[in-house]
Amino acid sequence: MTRARLGALAVCALVGFSLGTAPARAQEPRGREAYLFLVPGISFEEAMAEGTLASLATNGGAGLMTLGGGLPTARGRGIGPRPEDILVRWLDPAMRGGIERVATTIEETVTASSADRVLVIVASTRPSSEMRSSKDELHPLIVAEGPPGDLFAGSGQEGSITSDSTHRDGIVTDLDVMPTIAAFLGVDPSPEMTGSLIEIISGPPPFELHERYLAQRRMYVPIGTAGGIYLTIVGLGAIAILALGSRIPQVLRRIFGWGCLSVAALSTALLAAGHLPELTYATVIPFVALVTVFGTLAFAPLERRDVLLVPAGIGIAVLAYFALEAILEWTAALTPFVGGSELDGGRFYGLPNVFIGLLIGSCLWVAHRLRTRAGVALLVAVGLFAGLPYVGANLGGGVSLFAAAGLWLAVRERERLGVWKGLGVFVGVTLVGGALILLAHAISPLETHVTRFEEEVSGISGVFERFGDRLQVGFDLIAHNPFALIPVLGLPLAIAAVLRPPAALRPSLQRSPAWRDAILVTLLAGVVAYVVNDSGPAAAGLAFGLGLGGLLGVSLLSEAGKMGEP
């Protein structure tokens, strides 16, 4: 009897234990979940002004995001293959009673999660009307990670974000979102996920950077247009003065001569203005004007010895500035006043395409005073500077400068090499230089857009396909801005003027064959820059400017007895 009772008690205990533990297993929290909330039509400032979203950033970070096709920009569009355990919701403030109601929905959804740890990403991929009017192409992105009940506590300072796609604090691209979610959930990213992981870093969020970006967006077109008009007036005036000859007063010849040589200083000033503490018309315009005038006339004393020392001195100053800019991590290129901002998403760091021609022309303004080998070495060194991953990181820029080195050697040694050997030298130096840059990016631990180019392009067909795509970008640029045709049409005309110079240009070119070759190679390298860069007209523009500016400026300033072959 006792044994029967003990057995019954044991059975009851086992049944009770099993009944008691079954619900616990059913309610066991999941490991990790990810939430992606797409909130259209809000700016970065609007997102961070909402208290709930700002509190989310205190447990993560907030920043600016460029669009590259990684997230949908309209409701109903998918985001391609995505991991399990991810909730994607489109929350339009215009349909849900405003951003406050949207933020409340986000908080309620996340805090209801039974997961141990969640990743929450709030992004906007559609601009508001205010963003369109201010030409704001940077969208807000907030990222937070942790236990769901702790993410909206709102304690601490707001953080920031970055990724290897941008190498810029406070900036990521939408291509980074899905790889970040996949890494958080511990799954392998799909081949379509081409971005990098978003990293949360100590703050603050990039309020100041965004303010500078908006200021640059307001001013860069008027200021850049004014600079272009100035150079057009100077160039056309110089051509007219040379055509009229001795009927023009000497003082006017000198004014326009110095104006033509100022193209290098003006272009450099339009980049350097990005370092100004405040970006307003009251600060940018005087800065650009003063740097252009004094950055050119500072070399006027060299004219008394030899006019050709003037462009050489200007070229050295420009190269020195670009070395300094690389040390400063190209921060001026975030808000320049010629070409686009690196925050637009085409190139987040390194040498901007629009300044490739400036480097080419500056090198050759210096190289004509050097022995041929020294000039080639200078161009090769600057080509490595332009292309290597830890400095310029610009494949097209590096290839263009290596092409200039090959052209300089072939042109200067044309009597010894002949046409075909010279052509072989040009092609060989260009290919070897391009291969060195590609190899450097392939073995570099620093991932760059060149690295991704190498990963995405496969085989000869892929190379030609990408080459066609890059040319199409140049055509689109011309279609969008017809003024981009000026360097495209001007380069062959200027090359013809050097090969068969009119009477007004002939004396200065005949006095210094090295200067003539420098101008010719600058223009020819500009053609190469157009071909090998995606924004071809921009890359070739300043090569045309320095080639034509040097040709006209030296011709107007030169006097008999003050020019000679160095």
Structural key phrases:
566 residues; alpha/beta; 2 domains; six-stranded mixed beta sheet; two-stranded antiparallel ribbon; 21 helices; 58% helix; 8% strand; disordered N terminus; disordered C terminus
Describe the structure.
The chain is 58% helix and 8% strand. With 566 residues, the chain is α/β, with parallel strands linked by helices. It contains 21 helices and eight strands. The longest helix is centred in the middle third of the chain and has 38 residues, at 207-244. It starts with a helix and ends in a 9-residue tail after the last helix. Strands 3-1-4-5-2-7 form a six-stranded mixed β-sheet. It is elongated, with a radius of gyration of 30 Å. Helix 8 runs antiparallel to helix 21 and helix 9 packs antiparallel against helix 10 (281-297). It has two domains: 30-205, no CATH class; 210-557, no CATH class. It has helices at residues 2-26, 44-49, 51-58, 99-111, 129-133, 177-185, 207-244, 250-261, 263-272, 281-297, 309-327, 356-367, 372-387, 395-412, 414-443, 449-456, 459-480, 485-499, 506-511, 513-532, 536-557, and strands at residues 32-38, 60-66, 86-90, 117-123, 139-146, 160-163, 171-173, 198-201.
